[in-house]
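Anyone? Bumping this.
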Amino acid sequence: MDTEEIYREMANSIVSLDQEKAVHLANQALDESMDLLQVIEKGFGEGIRKVGDLWDEGEFFLPELMSGAQIMEKAVDIITPGLQSSGSERQSSGKVLLATIEGDIHSIGKTIVATMLKANGFQVVDLGTDVKAEKIVDEAIKGDIDIIGVSTLLTTTMVNQKKVIDLLNQKNIRNKFKVIFGGAPVTQGWVDECGADGYAENAVESVKLVKELIQ
Amino acid sequence: MLFTNWLEDKSKIILFDGAMGTQLMNRDLEPGKIPDLLNIENPEVVKKVLASYYDAGSDMVQTCTFSSNVVSLNRHNISNLYQKINVEAINNIKAILPSEENLIVGDIGPSGEFRPPVGNASGDMWKAGFQKQAKILAPGIDLWHIETISDLQEMSAAIQGIKEVSEKPIIASMTYRKTKTRGFFTIMGDSVETCVTKLEEEKVDVIGTNCTLGSDQMIELIKELVNLTDIPISAKPNAGQPRLSGGNTLYDQPVEDYVNDIGQMIDLGVKIVGGCCGTTPTHIRKIRTLIDSR
């Protein structure tokens, strides 16, 4: 099998949600001292991008999206020690902090976004649910974060998303971070009203949005 | 039994209620707080909303118990309150029930926990959580509405949990979103057809759909549903999509448009109509007028 073919197999293992095959191919990449950065980018990474496309088209749903991202993470975990020992490291696409805002305990959307971002090479700090705006801002400063993502499912707690922006403004550090919103009730109108940098309809869109903002 | 008679009466369109949560929000419900808690903490405000729907002409109104299954309450760390909330929810609706010609619907909402690979829920966990709630509500209600369910497996768990403790009729409402190219699916990937087949197998009395979609999109979904089953259909769409302005959630869709869409759904053969998020007693009153004028 030539290298390109192995990359295709790797991508296929993610798209066909075949964990056993993905793990096997990741180990094979280590054994054969393949270019591990390329393995992630052209192999497994291509697979997770396809999973995103299939979700977008309505061919894949939540279970497939989560499985694909989890298998991707497994493969990357196998490869990471090899990357580190070779002195090269998978270049982080950027650092994203995620939290569900104060008053809201819904975690599923945020967790899916976190999983997809990690699978796409972002470092993710997940603060969990019911997190106060003050804590989000403090952790963003401490963690040298590029993008702050604030999630909410409830229209009642949506108003608290704005607090994050207000607080950044008060501290005169609004320009240090990009702030994005997520959650079913969020619209472009709300993003504009709050002065946030964007929102995404779903986890796949959120990866695209974060990539755009970080450039 | 009255509900079964209504279902059998070909000329009868059953008018359900409108939104509870968004009505309570307009009455200063604390952000993030589950409305069900108000059954205990502020029963008067719950009774007001319930009564406003009966007053507007609803044939039946559901208990304020959307999140009061044990799994869902557990997520809010208040599962110890499940008995009290459900008992008081029955007391509250009974206190304002206008007549014997009106029915009480036991509302069962989603657990909020997903099965693997999305979350860690299991069928047994779901079933037990719904059943505990159903046991308490059962003596006080006339029929069930299991609603806003996005996983057919969770719906099955709820139906089976209820059927073991109650023989009362069940409306089983799934919530669908529209995919770009393949029509309507739940977020877990259940197609409308798969849902109908399974719900027929589970022998529910009414196949329903609610939430996620506005009334215009729900018309399209209903067109699919009526072709797939002979079981009566229930439709409770949202009042369009919400918009937040100055801290208030607004639903901009004109009531007339909503009522017009409901009229189209009745023409398509829907038996039970009402509303989900953003709908108000005004919506229900205007649908009452529409039904009575037919």
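Late reply, but here is one note on the structure posted above: Chain B has a mean pLDDT of 95.
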